[in-house]
What we know:
2 copies of one chain form a homodimer.
Chain A: H1 12-18, E1 33-36, H2 38-42, H3 52-64, E2 69-70, E3 73-74, H4 87-94, E4 103-104, H5 108-116, E5 121-127, H6 130-137, H7 141-157, E6 161-167, H8 180-192, E7 197-202, H9 209-221, E8 229-233, H10 240-250, E9 254-257, H11 277-286, H12 295-309, H13 316-321
Parallel strand pairs in A: 1-2, 1-9, 3-4, 4-5, 5-6, 6-7, 7-8, 8-9
Helix pairs in contact in A: 3-4, 3-12, 8-9, 9-10, 11-12
Amino acid sequence: MNVELPPGVTAEDELRQRLPAVHAQSDLPDKVTIYEVGARDGLQAEKLSVPTTAKIDFIVDLVGAGLPVVEATSFVSPKWVPQLADAADVLAGLGPDLSRHPVLVPNMRGLERALASNAAALAVFVSATETFARRNLNMSLLQAVDAALEVTEAARSEGLSVRGYVSMCFGDPWEGQVKLRQVSEVSKALIDAGCYQVSLGDTIGVGTAGHVAALLRDHEAIGIDLDQLALHFHDTYGQALANVHAGLQAGVTCFDASAGGIGGCPFAGTATGNLATEDLLWMLTGLGIETGVDLKAVWSAGSKMTALLGRPSPSRVAQALTP
Amino acid sequence: MNVELPPGVTAEDELRQRLPAVHAQSDLPDKVTIYEVGARDGLQAEKLSVPTTAKIDFIVDLVGAGLPVVEATSFVSPKWVPQLADAADVLAGLGPDLSRHPVLVPNMRGLERALASNAAALAVFVSATETFARRNLNMSLLQAVDAALEVTEAARSEGLSVRGYVSMCFGDPWEGQVKLRQVSEVSKALIDAGCYQVSLGDTIGVGTAGHVAALLRDHEAIGIDLDQLALHFHDTYGQALANVHAGLQAGVTCFDASAGGIGGCPFAGTATGNLATEDLLWMLTGLGIETGVDLKAVWSAGSKMTALLGRPSPSRVAQALTP
């Protein structure tokens, strides 16, 4: 793997010298899957239009870094998310095997476009809260769940794998606190419809470690296995890695993260701040948990994208390693 | 308590709406002591000279926020740390009861100055590594430990309480990895000499949660109780709160933190980045752990100081709450 480092970057031997000491814990998983969302969740809210070739390069670099799944784009309406209007071109640039590049699809129209672009893996999303569904999708919560289930079933019948995202699992900017069972029932509906995994998102980043443990226990209480769940944290209030730690202890083995921490400005008080893949990797490295992912290569890919976006990476690791 | 909020700050009811849901965990402590280090550890490396009155106001605000211990300053040589050359004036402005305002003292000369300023509580420090002792103090590790023990014993005989800091516990920028037993033996020497508590510092911020658990177990293995220990994390690689989580689970009940995350620039790859008190409080609030500290008041105090220093706070919570 030939990795181009950002200008002035710490030499490789110095990086190795700095890496955390490994102290494996017998009560944690041996292996974890990092589900990379930088190219989709990270870029979707960016105002600066990123060239399609830069997106493809970013995804290819992340695959080269060893990430097993790199979500590629979203077939939402270009009116809503102009940044991802080039979804078909991104997939064309990545093909022909798109099995490790899921695409987000909001509705049946998006599914048609995804199928026409040879997508092999989908993700659908739904909010755990009424207000968010109404504001974001202009539907009731039940209508939004039904729409996601319809897409899931149609995609499954075409032989595609489908992942579900549930947003606002730990708090809602309008409703405040969100009941555990309200979330786990949405998860169960997605799993029952054929989603192989549901990713529980702390979209506004307010949740803490005890909440993670409680929410996972509630999912187990209604018959959901932890290997059907992933966790998706935002570092808005600095809680993401403590929450991952709680998730690992509960037995979760899949975590979403965004290379370079891409996904909004860390200095804005908004629902932004994806957990940086680099920061997650630092912790997993220290815990002796295998991911198959090369930290330096992710850092390099993330640094190239944040440089293109014209701002420093919010990743603490990227900041510490970049002189 | 009359708290002056930073300009344009979120209204109080909105802050309350945003606070994390409380999910207490039966395996965690009910109460935790936050040992506030912003005025000393936070400011010591600042190049911009902070007026003495602003330091005193900062400390008084932090006491008003409910912090039980606010380390005030350091009687190091003004040649080494010009920022803290006003140590005597800071104490004079805080007196007469200085029991909740420990001062850092590097040697017998510093102890004399601290005693002349009516200090009631001291902190001494020593590195866990040879190279850091030689570079920072121009002594061997054994000489540095002996010097700290000499100060500790002299201060104890004057009736002062003494806390010990051990730095480089999780890694050293020159030596790389640091053996657990090397750290715990330094801690034991400080406790045997009369320190009521030893704070284990991850000065370069590289450690991860499993390392925390292992280091605490090693301290217990040589007869140190966890209530004799505190943990002092830097967020350089984003690990601070995950490490606090591991410390809480082991049973530690005292954590160092710095209001506003003061203690160096988050965009510099140096041994900086104190855990922000605000970020720690967010997690402890969500875990239902009592601290007696008001988040809004700490945020206000930290915001005033970071505004004076002319840069945004590296605290994620402060960033998220400040529009």
